[in-house]
Write a structure and sequence with these properties.
It is a single chain. By secondary structure, this protein is α+β, with helices and mostly antiparallel strands. It has 2 domains: about 10-210 and about 390-395, Ribosomal Protein S5, domain 2 (2-Layer Sandwich); about 215-385, 2-Layer Sandwich (Alpha-Beta Plaits). The chain has 11 helices and 13 strands. Helix 2 (about 105-115) packs across helix 4, helix 3 (about 140-155) packs across helix 4 and helix 10 runs antiparallel to helix 11. The chain is globular, with a radius of gyration of 21 Å. It binds alpha-D-galactopyranose. Alpha-D-galactopyranose binds near residues 50, 53, 180 and 347.
């Protein structure tokens, strides 16, 4: 078992195994070797939730769970897709690519559609080990992996930010999720052993080494799957946009959420509609937590880092209202244990994973205690997901 911020050696082996398995399937199906192979990582967000589409800060890191994709040109105008995990294959003429009822196909079509005038027919096979609906961005890993691979295959000369925006647009237009840019950024720009603090107003970022002196991050999957497209994610975005529009009317020099202070929010409590006030309160306090967390990482300050995680969860629970009974229970149970410095739900919300900061020597005990309580309460088995922080989307072949 290995955890975030522990050097680990299994990543290369896993990539090699995935590549062998996928290559065999590709060659069997298409009767030709792949020309380009890509490993596209998921991400964990250390803190900064729902701040990306609100001109805020985020602090994600790419993780060593990947979508692996193999590509070859096929000399026709047909796009052939093969998902090993879904055991489904489909072919469609490039000119007829459009939104469908299949979520996994939509992630791919959304990217292909934007590039259709610059590419030709191709064959694709892919598989992966980024858990779906767990708040670890399996969808961004697919979208970015497709864009990255097609960019290599057809020598399109697109830069990482171009690919990030194409992947984001695929989610907007084909998955109908009005997401921010954090997941695509983390997937493409990830750096081994580092978390990346991104300022979503100007897309500048800083990398901080994650070294938690004597502690590790544990990632626990609540096994409650979210499906963000169907959830209240888009509504949260509307509410927080309505709140900032109102605040701009009230404070005419204000440009965006980064200019909103806790004092300003205090002043308008009772004036701004309550739900919108709480959405804004989450964003303003979460931005501060990102800046503080980034300082904690630089100073290896685990006690305050843990407190920030837990405060972040309560803000998601009460102000932004994107948690669920199961993840709330996990956070409460975890934070009652003396060896746990803090915990919070990660990702878009409504289920998925909880990230906890735990002393290194008490990992197994923590898993046992929380696992048992969770089983008793919900009759569900939590899954611990061993992760380490890895580099961004890259070529395998
Ligand atoms: C999803 C979205 C991101 C971000 C998070 C919440 O992962 O894709 O853009 O908004 O939710 O922080």
């Amino acid at each position: 078992m290995f955890f975030i911020c522990k050097m680990q050696t299994t990543e290369n082996r896993e990539t090699t195994q995935a590549l062998q398995y996928l290559r065999r399937a590709f060659e069997q199906r298409y009767q030709r070797p792949p020309e380009v192979g890509v490993a596209s990582p998921g991400r964990v967000n250390i803190i900064g939730e729902h701040t990306d589409y609100n001109d805020g800060y985020v602090l994600p890191a790419a993780i060593d769970h990947h979508i692996y994709l193999l590509f070859a040109k096929n000399g026709t105008d047909t796009v052939n897709l093969y998902s090993l995990d879904y055991d489904q294959a489909v072919s469609v003429p490039l000119r007829e690519v459009r939104r469908t009822e299949s979520p996994w196909q939509n992630f791919i079509y959304g990217v292909v559609y934007q590039l259709r005038d610059r590419i030709e027919g191709f064959d694709l096979a892919f598989c992966g080990n980024v858990p779906e609906g767990a708040g670890l961005s399996s969808s961004a890993a697919i979208c970015c992996g497709i864009g990255f691979g097609l960019n290599e295959l057809f020598e399109l000369d697109l830069q990482k930010w171009d690919l990030a925006k194409i992947a984001q647009k695929s989610e907007h237009d084909f998955a109908l999720l009005n997401c921010g840019i954090m997941d695509q950024f983390a997937c493409l720009f990830g750096q081994k052993g580092h978390a990346l603090k991104l300022d979503c107003t100007d897309l500048t970022y800083e990398a901080s080494e994650v070294d938690l002196a004597g502690c590790v991050f544990l990632l626990l999957n609540s096994m409650v799957k979210h499906s963000l497209g169907d959830s209240d994610y888009n509504r949260r975005r509307e509410e927080s946009e309505a709140a900032i529009a109102w605040l701009r009317g009230r404070f005419p020099t204000l440009r965006n959420y980064q200019g909103v202070t806790p004092e300003m929010l205090g002043e308008v409590k009772g004036e701004l509609e309550d739900t919108q006030w709480r959405r804004a309160h989450h964003i303003v306090s979460e931005n501060q937590r990102v800046l503080q967390m980034s300082k904690c990482l630089a100073e290896h300050e685990v006690v305050s880092a843990g407190q920030l995680l837990t405060e972040g969860h309560y803000s998601l629970q009460h102000d932004y209202e994107v948690t669920c009974e199961e993840t709330d229970f996990l956070v409460t149970t975890l934070t009652e244990l003396p060896q746990v410095y803090g915990a919070r739900q990660v990702g878009g919300g409504f289920g998925g994973c909880v990230l906890a900061l735990v002393t290194e020597d008490h990992v197994q005990e923590t898993l046992d205690r929380v696992g048992e309580a969770y089983q008793q309460q919900f009759n569900l088995t939590i899954q611990d997901i061993p992760i380490s922080i890895t580099g961004g989307c890259h070529r395998m072949i």
